[in-house]
């Protein structure tokens, strides 16, 4: 099983760049809010840590390409938010959510939901899978951020270069091109982190 220490190491390089540079022009541009969708868990799984690729008590590993995903949570002035709870949920490699309205998921070795708490530099980290498309939607990961002195906000992260991005109604409901671009993340090969894995950085700027 991947330990939290290994996950931390996996996104250390991208988080370090973010910590030095900050989110650039996005420092005063709040991350666009997006729907939580229909498949937020009714009850959180017993295993809801920040490694979604391994489920406690199971010997298998999730199907799909491993994604080491990290970033920072900022306030509207570009200051890191410590102690915020970051939740993610997404479909498995078969395009199904671990939710009774979607059949409970197709991959029992994929956790489907995870959470992490931002550190003093506002950094969060996840080990999950590269999101896949399903009917009507381009690949995406749902995010919810709460605590740290701010109200709960939900958004979605998308993958750069996906052809369905151009026709996805929820992504394109964000009319400001800068705000829409900030939801789209480049995923790059990361053989130095884990064989066959990719990595990406998604910074989140909260509203006042």
Write a structural description.
The protein has helices at residues 4-10, 12-21, 177-181; strands at 66-74, 85-89, 113-117, 123-129, 140-147, 150-159, 184-185, 188-189, 198-201, 204-205. It is α/β, with parallel strands linked by helices. The chain has one domain (4-190): Protocatechuate 3,4-Dioxygenase, subunit A (Sandwich). Helix 3 (177-181) links the parallel strand 6 and strand 7. The longest helix has 10 residues, at 12-21. The radius of gyration is 16 Å and the shape is globular.
What is shown here, in short?
This protein has 3 helices and 10 strands. The chain is an alpha/beta fold.
What does the secondary structure layout of this molecule look like, with pairings?
Layout: H1 4-10, H2 12-21, E1 66-74, E2 85-89, E3 113-117, E4 123-129, E5 140-147, E6 150-159, H3 177-181, E7 184-185, E8 188-189, E9 198-201, E10 204-205
